[in-house]
Task: structure prediction
Amino acid sequence: MRNIFFIVVNCAMIRFHIHQKNPHKRIISNAVEVLNEGGLIIYPTDTVYGIGCSLYNKTALQKLYILKKKTKFDPISIIVKDIQQASSYARISNFAYKILRHCLPGPFTFILPSSREIPKIMLSKRKEVGIRIPANEVCQAILENHPYPLVNTSVNLQADELLNDPEEIERRYQYEVDLMLDVDWLPEAKESTVVSLINDEILVIREGKGNLDTLFS
Result:
């Protein structure tokens, strides 16, 4: 019998240049289609470039965790379009609501008790979730056209080494991510400020781009 050999070809990432303030609808539709099919995408936020996938696609979640070498004990946030959507995935007290309303959209990640809507792969024993609402038109356009939040993690090589050059990002992830939305270099790229609001207490876990004075004003 003749031997049959299969050659597996990794498809290179598709990279679209997109306008930061006025994203093209067709390009956004392409990104949403990739998310619907279980793919990973790279996109700009108001802090740094992020890598994300659809919250309820288990295959995509597993790919993202493997790519970033993360486990359920490593924090990963979700990006939602507004506080109303956030309330489906996190338990938001009146105390937390006032802070979210004052600070978001903006460069903050708020740690809150998770609801049952968060997939188990993302939950440690503490059952908490990071919530982000970036002040970024590209993110908002994606979420307006995709029914679920994005599971989000920063584009970096190491925890302290962010990637902001689209050319370098493409070289690094060209065979691991399906699509990239490129808005050129992000100004003042810096990770979000991470704040825990568990038990109605403000605890700054990581100081980043967000202005801490906003939390207390």
